[in-house]
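Review box. Two proteins, two foldings.
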Amino acid sequence: MAGDEINYPTEHMRTVGKNAHQEWGADTDATHTTLNEAMAAKDSFGNIAALAQYGSVFEQVKNVYVEAIAGAKTDLLAVAEGITNSAKNTQNQDDAAEAALVALWQNWERGPLENESRRDEAAATPEAQAAAAATDEAEAATGVSPESEEPAVDAGPNPDTRADGELPATTGSGPEANPVP
């Protein structure tokens, strides 16, 4: 399970954070109050030296425990606040993504995309108009549209015979040239 992502709806996270903050805060307050008020104090152990000494130790342990509960409350409230903040951040990111998608959609709805606008602007230049006129003249003179012509393809054998262990015959000079047999 390590590395797996877990996703929660932001409203659920917001509710958990709010409820946890309230419940955990109330629970730790109640525990803190109970420990502070309901447990025996140092004086309740009496005047006998051994019991008074035990009462002092007991009170110190109680104080450590009460402070640990107060620290736990701080930690729990920080976790609840972290959940709430995470929900807010997630919602803000969702809102930003939605705004970006709406802006993109509105861009498409307004008219042509940027590439179409730029193509139309480029086609309207005097140079592009002259090229279009030259194309029209060539088409009228030959009766063939340059777009309809197929490029010439040499269907001859591939001179690269390296796969067969032979070097192709070349003419010319230089280190890569081979004499023609």
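Next protein.
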Amino acid sequence: MHDRRFYTVLIGVVFAAFANHAIADDIFVGKFASLPSKFPPLEANAAELYIAPKGDKYVVTEFSKGEFKLDYLATRCDSKKDLSMPLLASGEIFALCAAESGFARFVYSQNGIDERDPRINVLKDRNEASYLREQYYMPPFFAFRRVDSFKYAPNDPIKLLSHETSEFAALCREVGVKLLEKPVAPVRSIAYDFDPKRISSWLHYWRVEVDGDGRILGLGGFSKLNSIEATKKASFEFTERRAGDGAGAATINPSAPYYRFPAGRQPYYGVDELGADVLAFLDVDKPDEYRKAPISQSAIRYQITLTDRRSGAVLGVQTYVVDQLNHRACGVNVDSVISPSAFIFDAINR
């Protein structure tokens, strides 16, 4: 009886795998390894791709020399096709595009790369014939070979490839914005400060854009045209910072502990104490991690406390987490963006 039940379950699993054509017959689902290449700067087996289905999209995870590099959501874009595809590909071609940007990121060419393309003569000269015949590549020349199909994987490949650590998930509890007291009067100036015994600068990035799964899409940059974020930009008569925090020595009173930056093109100058209406104070849970180069930082929990210096009242607190090492962030407060600027705007305009 036990054996009969086992075979019934096994047949059901196999049948389900074949029934799911999106997975079983999908040319893009699997593990792909880059081919050894003499073509600089590519190195032998330097890159691996893991592509797993997620609804009507794909999760593409890239590793370089065995270390996680990045991951992103992708969609099929066979009809769109990058301009370089017809020139490089031979036979029918299919493509994956990054879901956010729409750019072609991974291509399947029915008959490999077209060796007649004049742009790849340098590869032919280097005796890379096997490289040219591969069906999978990243435009223009980075070829891959499928090494694992994932077709009947016993575990969910999405979970296997997840880079949201338990620490990150714990840090992401109770993130976001809390608006508290209102300003006692209109806010015309702001100071940005921190404890120099813990950290040495204010924020590296003023905005972090993420997708629906918390993957970092961009650090810094500008708000999108006609977005809600674009409307939340406060203007100030002047701002203040600690001397040495993002600016060279002032020409006036350069040895002062703080610098004042007037609006417009007026020169900034040193001041002996802060005089702004409100104070945005930054702290992090891991000062040692924050001192690393941004690209090497693992999960850090940021907290910005905005205080009205005229009354001492706390106007609001913003808390968020950024893990640049694993390309994750949480604590979105406007559109799909973590924006201290939007937080400050909301806190002083009530």
